[in-house]
Amino acid sequence: MTGAGSCLSMLSLMIGSTMMDTQSPSTCIDQKAASLGDWRADVLTRMRVLIREADPDVVEQVKWVKPTNPSGVPVWEHAGIICTGEMYKACVKLTFASGADLNDAAGLFNAGLGGGTRRAIDIREGETIDAKAFKALFAEAVAYNCRKKGRSDD
């Protein structure tokens, strides 16, 4: 199986079985990025590197797979959802589940600012993100989730 459809098949099969020979969520995200074939793939790849640098224990998942979005939505979790990554024509959007509760000292959040819970970073073609500030924000989100779950070192 290859392509985004195989991720849908894999996730559908995993729901009710213990299929051993399936693609990992990371492989599905790699395929989704490769299928874009443009600047968004580069942005997503770079942000995934920064996410893993910020939290080596982060779990990369694919959620919300459905016929209208067969490759699903990349999700990064640690003691709960940290953020999601979505690719649109105009931007790559990283939405932090508890962004409103985080101290965004560097002002990275530039979307969803009016919401009560989530905040997002929209990255458009040609834009760069301050790597140090992003990793600090991601690490703060992990710490927030761990405190919320009552875990100090998760």
Could you provide a short overview of the structure?
By secondary structure, the protein is of the alpha+beta class. The protein is built from four helices and five strands, in the order H-H-H-E-E-E-E-E-H. Helices cover about 40% and strands about 20% of the residues.
Please provide a written account of the structure.
- The protein has four helices and five strands, in the order H-H-H-E-E-E-E-E-H.
- By secondary structure, it is an alpha+beta fold.
- The chain has a single domain (4-149), classed as Aspartate Aminotransferase, domain 1 (Alpha-Beta Complex), CATH 3.90.1150.
- The chain has a five-stranded antiparallel beta sheet with strand order 1-2-3-4-5.
- It starts with a helix and ends in a 5-residue tail after the last helix.
